[in-house]
Design a protein that fits this description.
By secondary structure, the chain is an alpha/beta fold. It contains 7 helices and 15 strands. A hairpin with a 2-residue loop joins strand 9 and strand 10. The longest helix has 18 residues. The relative contact order is 0.16.
Amino acid sequence: MKLIIKYIAFSLLSFFLMSSCTPVKSTYNSFSSIVQSMFNSTQIVENKIKDPFLADTKLAVLWIGHSTVLIQMGDKFILTDPLFTGTHALLSKRLVEPGIEPQDLPDIDITLLSHLHMDHLSFGSLNLIESKIKKFILPENALAYLPKYDFKCREIKWWETIIYDGVKISATPLVHNGWRYGIDQAWMKKSYGGYIISYDDITIFFAGDTAYDEDLFLEIGKQFNDIDLVILPISPIHPREYSKARHTDPKEALQIFYDLNADYMMPIHYDTFAESYDTLGEAESLLRREMLTNNLTEEQIKIFKIGEQKVIIK
């Protein structure tokens, strides 16, 4: 019986580590943080927004948590990496509940998926908001993993551009990976990426997860100029020798902001779930330190609380 329990525990842990963004080399700390989170109460978001539509607004953003962002561009709503469930990959419990109730979402014109990891592609979350989604855009080959839903789906390859209902979507490469279960890394080589979203003279860059590569981001900046807002991950940070190949820390995220010559940056992918060795609040603290060093203000770097909505461009 003890052997069976050990096998089940090891299998669950391996499944989590291979299917999420948590570094495999930080197994002990990651698992310790995850176990601890299971016994802590999930933080409540007070005064959740019931109707996120803002009239006469060109660009507004609501942070739902992790990489889930509700973007209003004029009369259009874009949703990224929808994650509304209480856990992901069976083990990792939310530290903070989602910033809006699924039923209070507006109809979503376009939903974007950055990659297949379980903290980004959540089938349980898609079940909750299926009736809200009009168009679901995924990376190359990702449809093979998607169950049958009522909404329309469309894969998009790196550097490809599509226009849907007046919104222009362009996919870009990033520095991450596209597999979901570990064993599929041999063939899921391009099932991840970022998105350039343009509508009504507003342009956004969304990266659900990426490491830093100077040549890549300078090239993206060259191909897509006049970017208003970049939405970038700033965690997990540690252990840096491992995470650097997959995840930007706050300093590297700011470098992408500079490389793309954007007007505003929104940090994401922190303080929603346990992130490797990172302590709660560490990513934001390091970001604020870098902002001071670089004379950046909160007018330029838009730091959100989960559940907070801000108008970026009136």
